[in-house]
Each structure stands twice: as C-alpha cells, then as structure tokens.
Amino acid sequence: MSIIELNHINVNFKNSQKESIPAIKDVSLKIPTGQIFGIIGYSGAGKSTLVRTINLLQRPTSGSVLFNQTELTNLKPAALRQARQKIGMIFQHFNLMDSMTVRENILLPLQETTLTPPQKAAKVDVLLNQVNLTDLADQYPRQLSGGQKQRVAIARALVNDPDILISDEATSALDPKTTYQILQLLKELNAKYHLTIVLITHELEVVTALAQNVAIMAAGEIIETGPTQQIFNNPQTSFTQELIQYSKINPAWEVTDV
Ligand SMILES: Nc1ncnc2c1ncn2[C@@H]1O[C@H](COP(=O)(O)OP(=O)(O)OP(=O)(O)O)[C@@H](O)[C@H]1O
C-alpha cells in the first residue's frame, strides 16, 4: 500500500522575464506505507519543490497528489488543513520559534485542536521523553545545540500523530556524530510508530544508512528508483555512478595533489 502517490507532477516557476521555468517534470512516485524512502540529488535538482507538493505547500502546476487515497488538490481549505496535520515536516534550519521555550514550540501545532490543556501537556511530556529533552523543556532554542534543536523540531512535527514525516535535509547542518544520533532517532520512530519517513538529502550515506527504497533526482526528474542496495550496487545511469563516485563513503574519494 502506498501512503503517498504522486502522478505526473509538474511544477513551473516564472522567472523575472515572466517565462515559465520547469522545476519538476512529469514526476510519478509511490511511497510505501511504513517505509523510510530516500530522495537524493544535488542542490537544485528539485527535491524540496517535489516534497513540498506532498502537503501542497507547493501546489503543482499539473498532476495529482494522493495521500491515503485522498486527492489533496481537490480539498477545500479546512479539509486540507486537517490532512496536513497528518504530514509532519522537519528542515535543515529547524524553523523553531526563538521566543518560545522547547515545551511551547512543541505545543504550538496543538493550538488548533480540541484537546484540553492537561491533555496537551501530557502529549508534550511523552514526546519530550521520546526525543530525550525532558530536562531542557524550559530552555529557549538559543540555549540548545543543533542536534537538540532538531530533536525539538522532530517532537513538534510528531505532536499531531502524523502518518508521515518529511525530513528535508534535516541533518545537513549537523556534524557526523549528531547526524548519526538524529538518523538513529528517525529509525526508532519509524519502527515504534510505523511512521513513514521521506528523507530528502544530497548525502548518499544518509540514504544508505536508513532508506529501504530510494529515488534519484536530477534536473526536476526522477532518473532511477528502486531498493537502495540494488540501486547503489548496480547503478543504471551515469548520474548515479557519479553520485557514488563523489560520495564520502567511496574510499577512493580524495582530493588530488596540485
Ligand atoms: N519559489 C521559486 N521560484 C522560482 N524558482 C524556484 C522556486 N523554488 C525553487 N525554484 C527553482 O527550482 C529548482 C529546484 O529547486 P529546489 O529547492 O526544489 O531544489 P533542491 O534539490 O531541493 O535543492 P536545494 O537542496 O539546494 O534546495 C531550482 O532551480 C530553484 O532555483
């Protein structure tokens, strides 16, 4: 079963001369329920634009977006708001509210719900414990490390019990050890809550560490997709071969003497 089905998605942007520039070109993609699914490509490939169509933060110029069998592009604003609550998102730069404590940041998405204040507080406590931040609940983002900030963002993304978490370069600003810890947390959440995770990254090692399936993006298109091990053991395109060649996990990767 697919939790997300993108069919023939096109996204065009207008440049300063009002010309239409294609950023996503006829992309169709199925994301299986409960999986960690990687989308990898270089900067500018269209990864962020594509995943933003999943919750219609970016409306596609054409194409259909099915989330749990519901066509999102047809929904009225109230129904779309409700559907979006089931799609959590985390970002490279965390996007926390600086003037709010850790606890207040995590509480924020619950504002629109009908839960009572004690119910809200109980939910936040569970999540603080899950992401190992109980002791820092009353701190402000500026008092936290990058890894701790991303943990707050993860807890906030999970507070409405989403079916899917979209991680857009969530570890790109973190050092390798912290990256490992965040990836470990994502893996735990996937196993514990059967949470589908879409992992957008330009780093091959992030995809190979976690994702069962992967899609390779270049110039707005998906050029190869399939089981991660299979794709990287037997790349079918010169682009994927190059991605492997320049990845940090390639032992031959070294800067030559000049
Ligand atoms: N709002 C916008 N208006 C015009 N062009 C845009 C807009 N958003 C993205 N683009 C263009 O669409 C293309 C894809 O950008 P996108 O951010 O999706 O790529 P990406 O693979 O996520 O790269 P990065 O990791 O660097 O963000 C780029 O050429 C970008 O300049």
UniProtKB/TrEMBL annotation:
Q: Which residues cross the membrane?
A: none
Molecular function (GO) terms for this protein are:
ATP binding; ATP hydrolysis activity
Listed under GO biological process in this entry are: amino acid transport
Reading the lineage from the top rank, the first entry is Bacteria
ABC transporter domain location, by residue?
6-244
Question: Does the record's keyword annotation contain Membrane?
Answer: yes
Task: Report keywords, A-Z.
Answer: Amino-acid transport, ATP-binding, Cell membrane, Membrane, Nucleotide-binding, Translocase, Transport
One Pfam family this chain carries? ABC_tran
Protein's name according to its UniProt entry:
D-methionine ABC superfamily ATP binding cassette transporter, ABC protein
Which source organism does the UniProt entry give? Weissella kandleri
Taxonomic lineage from the root: Bacteria, Bacillati, Bacillota, Bacilli, Lactobacillales
